[in-house]
Amino acid sequence: MKKNIMTTVVLVFMLLTLPLTLSAAEYQHKLEEKDITFAWTIQGDEIHVQLSAKTEGWVAVGFDPIDAMEGANIIIGAVKDGKVKIEDHFGDRKRGHSSDEELGGKNDVKNPVGTEEKGITTVSFTIPLNSGDKYDKPIPADGKGKVMLAYGAGKDSFTNRHPFNVVYEINLKTGESKKVK
Ligand code: HEM
Predict the structure, then answer these.
(1) Whether 76 contacts 69, CB under 8 Å
(2) Is 78 touching ligand 1 by the criterion CB < 6 Å?
(3) In the list 82, 107, 163, 179, which could disulfide-bond 88, CB 3.0-4.6 Å?
């Protein structure tokens, strides 16, 4: 009898936590820093990314920056009036970035999805590890690389500066990470 009760308790617990377990398990790796989360899965020659931040503005990730934002392969996204906009950008200067399309390259973002709920903006997308575009950089899927995370505030405009930014060195394959800035 006792065993039956225990089995029922375990089953109910599993049923209740299933949705949580599924969403957490959606991505292989997750990095949480203050008010921003970067989750990712490398699959074949692509990387699936989810970015979430406590903002009603934009949220972004940048791979392999050289000097501040210069040289970084940036993906920036925001949700406005329920509509998601995610763009492929490049750090064409130390203090800014432009869209690949504006620079003469192409937008390599696939599967753009986003929500803005209770002041939290979450976007997800897929990009190739090596798009071949002049304004992207091969993403190091097998070793360490610098990854920057940032989010804007208030406005959805992609030119609105960030109140928060951070730089990590991440091994995208193992998920091992170290904050470098
Ligand atoms: C939206 C337009 C943006 C503006 C106007 C802007 C502006 C700036 C400025 C003025 C700095 C200081 C640069 C310096 O050290 O002299 C900076 C630093 C930085 N930005 Fe942005 N930024 C923008 C977007 C982004 C995006 C999309 C990311 C990507 C995730 C990002 C990540 C960073 C990081 C990590 C730093 C610090 C770099 C360091 O200390 O080495 N920024 N930004």
Answers:
(1) no
(2) no
(3) 107
65 CA distance to ligand 1 middle (Å): 10
Q: What confidence tens digit (pLDDT) does each residue in 43-99 have? A: 999 999 999 999 999 999 999 999 999 999 999 999 999 999 999 999 999 999 999
CA distance 58 to 157: 7
94 lines ligand 1 (CB under 6 A): yes
Q: What is the pLDDT of the chain when averaged over all its residues?
A: 90
Q: Which of 162, 166, 180 to mutate to test the pocket of ligand 1 (most atoms within 8 A of CB)?
A: 162
Q: Which pTM value belongs to this model?
A: 0.86
Task: Report how far residue 49's alpha carbon sits from residue 37's, in angstroms, rounded to the nearest whole number.
Answer: 10
114 pLDDT above the threshold of 90: yes
pLDDT of 155 reads 82
Where are the domains positioned within the chain?
28-179
Class assignment of domain 28-179?
mainly beta
Q: Is 93 in the pocket of ligand 1 (CB under 6 A)?
A: no
Average pLDDT over every residue of 13-39: 73
Give the number of the atom of ligand 1 that is nearest the alpha carbon of residue 76: 27
